[in-house]
Amino acid sequence: MNFLLVLEWLIKGFVWALVLLGGFAYLTLYERKALARIQSRLGPNRAGPWGILQPIADAVKLIFKEELTPAKADKLIFTLAPVITVVPAVIITAVVPWGPSFDIFGYHLNLYIADINVGVLYIMSIASIAVYGIVLAGWSSNNKYAMMGGLRSTAQMISYEIALGLSFVSAILLAGSMRMLDIVSAQGGYWFHFIPKWFVVLQPVGTGIFLIATLAEVNRAPFDMPEAEQELTAGYHTEYSGMKFALLFMAEYTKMIAISAIGATIFFGGYNGPFVDKFPWLGPIYIFVKIIILLFGMIWVRATFPRIRYDRLMAFGWKVLLPLSLALVFITAVGIILAQLNPLLIIFIPVASLLVAGVAVALIDRTLRRKDYARR
Amino acid sequence: MRVVEPVVELARGLWTTLRMMLDKPVTIQYPEQKKPVKARFRGRHVLKRYESGLEKCIGCALCAAACPADAIFVESSENTDEERYSPGERYASTYEINMLRCIFCGFCEDACPTEAIVLGDQYELSFTDRRQSIYPKEMLIEPVPADAKPTPHKTEPGVYTRSVPEMKDPQD
């Protein structure tokens, strides 16, 4: 291990952390602007041209706000909880590659921080650690609302993590590896010269389950149960103020970026795109654009759908998403075996999963239209 | 068996919000752009003058009597032909409105026999101190018309005998 290698890691880690933290600040502005445009407003435009200094103004305000700690709170855990929430959100994207490796000034540069052969497993484990921060924040506040918010988030995140993990499994099966670099390179190239070999084409339903489950995983609308204002004031961060609140807020938005980066890598081809073989610097641009589009999707869904009821959220997670994603894993496995007989039979995977998804939609629809369902 | 319709319904919801992004924003950039107020808007009070420059207010304090919030204070003094502020016997030497008390009901307008007090279209009434909330006569009275002298006027005796001008009945 030479000095140059350590320096490279340090610089890459530092740059990526800065991208995430700066990205969090500008994601808040992006969200406010996009929501405003959807609601026929302009959004923040006072601080700097087009409001680009608004995140700085927000940060300055939050830093100078008074920090309160409730008298009966568990002080150590109360202080520690925001940190426990932020750290997984920042480190989860360490395995996401941002571009193909290339030579620069005679030095071979890899555009990823860590190349773990169980990258997807790493993502799942770190994502589950993030639950602890929120639960501890809710519990240590010694506040009923915060406690309820924390409990809801545990139940919700653990439930949807299963569907999330199973949707990853179909991607792992298709790539034949848990290593993120293998998953990305398995998505390179085209079918018939124009359909990209992204897993979203092969496994559209799995991608849909991933997108729904991530909304629940990062507590975004319409699954923002832990923060349902009407029921729980602010949920697990009711008692937080000042920089501690800012840390919880930061974790939430950093998780949004992280989960979009992971989704872009696993289902939307990662850094793959036209001409990326010839010009490796296009890779980071492609993944950046994909992250921006996925983030817009999250904001768009927030602007459109109302928050669903808690029991229906859990019912949807356990009774719909879990069986559906199990079926998808089965279909993917069968499809891969069929593709070994004839490569064209890979079409079995999207066709069969869309059929199964259609059955699921019909069953949900029938259940929701049953007369006695609304009364429960 | 409905398979396509539920998905289409969700997509229609998403399309509705996306379509709104193409609309022109309705935002009015307030300090730079101001929306004109309605004709009957009740804003800050204005004390009117006649074309000659004399004040319409005769210091009768009927506005103060009508005020449900007790926001108006009027102190009147005698007019003389050497120092005439308004037609008739008296004028308001002190006229103060406490803008923290005022509820902008417009009863003072209705009570005024000479139509001297009018709720105008000024709505930017911010102050940093309670004392600044009391608007004295100098702030409320409208400026003198271009071709008229400021009050007090020196007038011929016997010209201004009526406090309330002769007003015709409204036509409509």
Q: In one word, what is the shape of chain A? A: globular
Question: Most extensive interface: pair and counts?
Answer: A-B, 20 and 19 residues
C-alpha end-to-end distance of chain B: 67 Å
Spatial order of the strands forming the largest sheet of chain A: 1-2
CATH class membership of the domain at 55-140 in chain B: Alpha Beta
- Strand segment tally of chain B: 5
Can you summarize the main beta sheet of chain B?
3 strands, antiparallel
Mean pLDDT of chain B: 87
Task: Name the average pLDDT of chain A.
Answer: 84
Portion in helices of chain B: 10-25%
Pairing-aware structural class of the strands and helices of chain A?
Answer: mainly alpha
Which oligomeric form is depicted? heterodimer
| Percent helix range of chain A | 55-70%
Strand order of the largest sheet of chain B: 2-3-5
- What spatial form of chain B do the alpha-carbon principal axes imply? elongated
Rg of chain B is 25 Å
Q: In CATH terms, what is the architecture of the domain at 55-140 in chain B? A: 2-Layer Sandwich
In N-to-C order, the SSE pattern of chain A is HHHEEHHHEEHHHHHHH
Please describe what this structure looks like.
The complex is a heterodimer of chains A (376) and B (172). Chain A is mainly alpha-helical. Chain A has one domain. Chain A has 13 helices and 4 strands. In chain A, β1 and β2 form a beta hairpin. Chain B has a domain of 86 residues: Alpha-Beta Plaits, CATH 3.30.70.3270. Chain B is 18% helix and 14% strand. In chain B, the strands form 2 sheets. In chain B, strands 2-3-5 form a 3-stranded antiparallel sheet. Chain B has a two-stranded antiparallel ribbon with strand order 1-4. Chain B is elongated, with a radius of gyration of 25 Å. Chain B starts with a helix and ends in a 32-residue tail after the last helix. Chains A and B meet through α1, α11 and α13 of A and α1 of B.
